[in-house]
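User: Look at the shape:
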Amino acid sequence: MACLNRMIYLFSKIIKKLRLSAIKNSSIDKTAKIESGTSFILSSMARYSFCGYDCAILNAEIGAFCSIASNVKIGGIAHPMHFVSTSPVFLSHKDSIKTKFARHNYLPMLKTVIGHDVWIGEGAFVKAGVCIGTGAVVGMGAVVTKDVPPYAIVAGSPARVIRKRFSDELIQSLLATAWWDKSDAELKLLGSYITDPEKFIKKAAGK
């Protein structure tokens, strides 16, 4: 039975991977990873970042060392709430509905910016145009409608700051290190200090 369960698991894993990902007009660092089932359009992802399965990411700039769980939605296109109708049948751009009763120009594309070393939990939604600061954590299922400060932990719908990961002084010191821009060789030397923020900061500053 254990062998059969193992085979079923491996088969389902292969099927999941075979779906591939939909990547269009985007830039992804060679060390980054986009899992299958994800739509990644007009976006960029820096070094050593990854996003899980079945994400939808549109017009987003994602920094380095970010961890994005599965089923996360980032960005999107707005509908014209100040028009009589919000339907795309009155707009000029292509959409799911083919019929056009008018062709008004309306296609705002707000850039969503995700800083470095951001962790976004399973099933979170990030509104287009939002900026999530470096080191922030977004709880699973959170609906982020406003900017998130660096190293803040947010959760809920709408997402609210629960607390900060570190003191304000420590946050400023960590941001000043810009460790995410350091070379792989430098990070290997600093890696052993990652569990101790204060010592890490000193070593990153060459002290």
Notes: The first strand starts at residue 22 and ends at 24. The chain has two domains: 21-75+110-164, 166-207. The helical segments are 2-18, 168-177, 184-190, 197-204.
